[in-house]
Design brief:
A hairpin with a 4-residue loop joins strand 7 (291-292) and strand 8 (297-298). Helix 9 crosses helix 11 (369-387). The longest helix is centred in the middle third of the chain and has 30 residues, at 140-169. With 391 residues, the chain is α/β, with parallel strands linked by helices. It has eleven helices and ten strands.
């Protein structure tokens, strides 16, 4: 079985950003390591759009400043067009994965898939994690207010432009409409700048994230799980797949394309996905309470959560925590395509919110090898438990 030092040197110390040579080198390392186990291993190619989120920040900035400029210049109709078009453009790309602007810089990348076939397959369990990384100017907690700001600002922009159009038809009698339009204009500019900082400014930071917690530790765990499964006799009736994904950090593009293509029709076997995020911070595991897009959110599959909780109680003697906050992980791609899924995370020591992801602070020192060992044991127990019942 691979040494943690070897795995973590490749998966927790080096940035693996989409659109770089490093992400391709990581795919090759994972493929070669898994192929040595004797499992059925393949590279699954897809077209990645590495610049999608960076360009989204630029569009948000341009939209906010254009709206501000045109409102100040009395061009309310043009401002209204921006207020309607910019959010629709961003939603089409980020919510529905329509490549409106993501085609810029698009290139081929790979997922790595290892399969341990059952003797008589009746069901399938996919264990997933992503190996790509990202560097941002803000972490998840700092970025949350920017994401929430869209809820009031976009309606304010629309109503503000309409108010300015009304004020233009009744000059001298609509001071409050003018002031309302001014508030909308400044709000749009602030939101555009904030969105640019959240989505795009990380491209200019010299210190890049090595992605130890997000999500190198989880990938290392799954390599060890695959190696252990290769040494064991095949399961009776459960195909187990280890799926190492790229392009998660650019709006879950990779898993979205994978799920859309593989599960365009109902799967030939009942299929369930356990996704791993932030594994290795501690042995204290939890399941994410929700998976979110901008307009949609999904509950984790209840059957999976119940089984995860059962095995957690058996192995660790305590119930599996369900977080009060949601996430935006690869599990949402599978859930959106009708495949039952849930995301396992490890909680920070002390139970606080995880901070410093997508930055140079997400280093190997944040990983606890004992916690990684415990996660391997938990997943191997889960695999055995799944094979012992009919989902």
């Amino acid at each position: 079985m691979s040494d943690w030092n070897l795995l973590l040197a490749k998966l927790a110390e080096t940035p693996r950003e989409n659109g770089t040579a490093a992400v391709h080198a990581s795919a090759r390392f994972l493929f070669d390591t898994l192929e040595r186990t004797g499992l059925d291993v393949s590279l699954v190619a897809f077209t990645a759009q590495p610049w999608t989120l960076r360009l989204a920040g630029v569009i948000a900035l341009a939209g906010g400043l254009l709206y501000w400029r045109w409102m100040r210049a009395g061009r309310a109709r043009a401002a209204l067009a921006v207020a309607a078009a910019a959010p629709l453009l961003l939603l089409a790309q980020l919510e529905w994965q329509i490549p409106i602007f993501g085609w810029i810089g698009a290139e081929s990348q790979d997922h790595v898939l290892a399969r341990r076939a059952a003797l008589a397959p009746e069901q399938r369990l996919i264990l997933a994690a992503h190996y790509d990384t990202k560097t941002d100017a803000l972490d998840h907690v700092e970025r949350a207010p920017v994401d929430l700001l869209a809820l009031p600002v976009i309606p304010l922009m629309l109503v503000g432009a309409l108010a300015a159009m009304r004020a233009a038809r009744a000059p001298g009698h609509s001071l409050w409409l003018v002031r309302f339009g001014g508030l909308a204009a400044w709000s749009a500019a602030v939101y555009g700048v904030a969105s640019f900082i959240a989505l795009s400014a990380g491209a200019f930071l010299p210190a890049r994230s090595p992605g130890a917690l997000d999500d190198g530790g989880a990938c290392a765990v799954l390599v060890r799980v695959a190696e252990a499964l290769a040494e064991r006799p095949p399961l009776a009736r459960t195909d187990v797949e280890v799926l190492l994904l790229s392009a998660e950090e650019v709006g879950v593009q990779g898993s979205w394309v994978y799920a859309a293509q593989r599960f365009a029709a109902p799967p030939e076997l009942p299929t369930f996905v356990v996704n791993l995020e932030g594994i290795g911070a501690s042995a204290r595991l939890a399941v994410l309470g929700r998976e979110r897009f901008t307009l949609r959110s999904f509950e984790p599959d209840a059957r999976l959560v119940a089984l995860l909780d059962e095995r957690h109680r058996m192995l660790f003697g305590r119930p599996l925590e369900r977080t009060g906050f949601g996430g935006a992980t690869d599990a949402r791609s599978f859930l959106a395509h009708g495949i039952p899924a849930a995301t396992l995370v490890s909680r920070e020591p002390g139970g606080g919110l995880t901070r410093g992801l997508h930055s140079a602070l997400d280093s190997r020192t944040r990983l606890d090898e004992a916690a990684l060992d415990a996660s391997v044991a938990f997943l191997l127990d889960l695999v055995s438990a799944v094979d012992a019942r009919n989902f």
